[in-house]
Amino acid sequence: MVYTRKNQRDLTGAERRKFVAAVLELKRTGAYDRFVRTHIDHYTADGEGRLRIAHMTPSFLPWHRKFLLDFETALRRIDPTVSVPYWDWTRDNSPASSIWREDFMGGNGRRADLQVMTGPFAHATGRWTITQSMTDIRYLTRDFGRPRDPITLPTPAQLDAVMRERVYDAAPWNSTSATGFRNALEGWAPGRGNERFRIHNRVHRWVGGLMLGGGSVNDPVFWLHHSFVDLIWSRWQQRNPGAAYLPAEPPPLGDAQYRKVAARHEPMAPWGVTPASMFDHSRIYRYA
Amino acid sequence: MIVPRRVALRSLFALAVTAFTGGALGRVATRPDRPGSEGARDPHAFDEMYRGHRLLGFSGPGGGPTALVDGRPLHLMRCADGGWVSPIDHYESCPTPLAATRAAVDELGTARLSPLAGAHGVPTDPTGGSPRGVHA
User: Fold this and answer.
1) For a surface tag, which of B19, B34, B113, B132 has the fewest beta carbons within 10 Å of its beta carbon?
2) What is the mean pLDDT of residues B42-66?
3) Any idea where the domains of chain A sit in the sequence?
4) A245 HSE (CA, 13 A, CB side)
């Protein structure tokens, strides 16, 4: 049966508690940290001459759609009534937003060491110890708005500009693609200062702390962020029914992107599913 | 599990460099004795104290830049825009390996790098998995 992913601001208190409880249970079993590790292991930058499957690449969106589905499936084995809510950061765009309340994601990191001290994912609860990370720090960190170089969350107008793209992706199929929906949404841009960080990337930078690096999945808000990114893609697909995943065919020998990106019918590690197979989620979940 | 020679070398190298002292590495970083480049300075060499951390840079086995922060390897990744990112900050593409290392330290505070920061996203199979991954 098709289930619904809701806006986190519309969850009831009971729904918030159930989601948090399922996430904590997944953490307790060790399964959560395997998701963290999968994300770490599939990060490849686009100047390295290697295959990119998860970031700076056309399959950024289908890779994360599959990643979220796997996570959600694991949560629903614990509690079949749970789904991954989404965080509309164009609307809930402040440290005072309800998403950061003590009964849900918890709040900002404290100034001295960026340690999150409130909510169910604070280290002192004993239930959220970081094990798969780029540093030896064992607690969740956040640095809302990056005070030493302030940045704001994406605005509705900035998101509207992304939605006006009419083609899924464009050569050179990486972080320098000047047009195309995928890179506009992923958020790599030239320019100076904070202009370089847009939409998806900008949200990672605004939350800061662990969300900034390879261990971003350690912050459970990662899932709510990517649920909204997936919603944006879903809405864009509805508006552009003829716009298929690109590239349709693998870049040929001689092309700079030869064997560097996943074409429409090529497998994505670690699952082996293709971007084409992730295109339609309507028989699995829908967005409210 | 078959580990490609390149990956094996990288791992061995990482182990080897962490076994050295900072002083020894400082000499390695600046020794102009690469074959065929008599007197040429290592293009990726740097050696400085930055916000209380020792930053060392030098050319790795593949010729790309290698960075150590307090003796611990920091994986520097090249971006298509010509810049560099690190595992600590995936979003700031910095103009040089040193700038990317400093940007990582800016986020690091008093923390130390973990072994995962030395190399991640290392593929061994055609669909892009990692030798250290749970799915390899």
Assistant:
1) B19
2) 94
3) 3-95+141-287
4) 25
| Neighbouring C-beta atoms of residue B40, cutoff 10 Å | 10
**B6 and chain A in contact, CB less than 8 A:** no
pLDDT exceeds 80 at position B7: no
Give the CATH architecture of domain B22-30+41-111.
2-Layer Sandwich (3.30)
Q: How far is B17 from chain A (nearest CA, A)?
A: 18
Q: Is A124 in CB contact (< 8 Å) with chain B?
A: no
> Which tokens in the block code for residue B25?
């590495």
Q: How far is A272 from chain B (nearest CA, A)?
A: 8
The 3-class SS string of chain B reads CCCCHHHHHHHHHHHHHHHCCHHHHHHHHHCCCCCCCCCCCCCCCEEEEECCEEEEEEECCCCCEEEEECCEEECCEECCCCCEECCCCCCCCECCHHHHHHHHHHHHCCCCECHHHHCCCCCCCCCCCCCCCCCC
User: What phi-psi label fits residue A109: left (phi over 0), alpha (psi between -120 and 50 degrees) or beta?
Assistant: beta
Residues 28-87 of chain A whose Cβ lies under 8 A from any Cβ of chain B: 34, 37-38, 40-48, 50-53, 55-56
Cβ-based contacts under 8 A for chains A and B: 140
Once rounded to an integer, what is the mean pLDDT over residues A134-144? Answer: 97
Q: Which fold has domain A3-95+141-287?
A: di-copper center containing domain from catechol oxidase (1.10.1280)
- Of A97, A94, A74, A93, the closest CA to residue A84 belongs to A74
Distance from CA of B9 to the nearest CA of A (A): 17
In the stretch 126-185 of chain A, residues with CB closer than 8 A to chain B read 132-137, 172, 174-176
| Residue B71 at interface with chain A, using a CB cutoff of 8 Å | no
Q: Where are the domains of chain B?
A: 22-30+41-111
Task: List the structure tokens of A118.
Answer: 């409130």
Q: Using CA coordinates, name the residue in chain B closest to A53.
A: B128
Distance from CA of B8 to the nearest CA of A (A): 16
Q: What pLDDT is stored for residue B20 in this prediction?
A: 44
> Taking the model in full, what pTM does it have?
0.88
